[in-house]
Amino acid sequence: MRFTFTHPMHSHPYNPELVTGDGIAAVAAAAEAAGFHGFGFTDHPAPTQRWLEAGGHDAVDPFVAMGYAAARTSTLKLIPNIVVLPYRNPFIVAKSAATLDLLSGGRFVLGVGVGYLKREFTALGVDFDERAELFEEALEVIRGIWTTDDFSYQGRHFTASGITAHPRPVSDP
User: Taking Cα atoms as reference points, which of 106, 34, 41, 43 lies closest to residue 77?
Assistant: First the structure.
């Protein structure tokens, strides 16, 4: 059995010591030393105050924070809990994830989800009712760009022609 650990920023207001570079490094190193398989962060770039006051939590950018954790650990898998694909352009997600996987020596696992906070979608300019379709298209784009040179895609939300993105992830997508 393997266990993963989500950074303990699950409160509002958060503990400021946990979100410094040293704080993130200390939590990641402690998770690795304790034998956890993976470590990650949540993805909430624009939560509402109402959600925060009802038990929600603040968040840092998961890719930046996991990059910092990767630099301060050696075996810990980096597994976000979760990246909300409809929030982000899939070509940017693919590049960020491939870069993090490369720089960490193949320790990144892209954990993804559809998302659920309607007001967060609104703040990000993303249609909440199209999140499932955005999610499916994003998965197709990410798989394609990680496995194909001269990649082309025609979807309802994303269009690309002749795209090649290197370096690719070290891990087999």
Answer: 106
Residue 125: Cβ-neighbour burial (10 angstroms; 0-12, 13-18, 19+): exposed
Sign of the dihedral through C-alpha 25, 60, 133, 149: negative
Segment 19-58, tens digit of pLDDT: 999 999 999 999 999 999 999 999 999 999 999 999 999 9
Separation between Cα atoms, residue 27 and residue 157, nearest integer Å:
38
Residue 124's CB is within 10 A of a number of other CB atoms, namely 16
Dihedral angle at the C-alpha atoms of 58, 50, 131, 115, nearest 10 degrees?
40
76 contacts 141 by C-beta, under 8 angstroms: no
- Spell out the long-range contacts of 18-23 with Cβ–Cβ below 8 A and sequence spacing 24 or more: 19/60, 21/68
The pLDDT value recorded for residue 9 is: 86
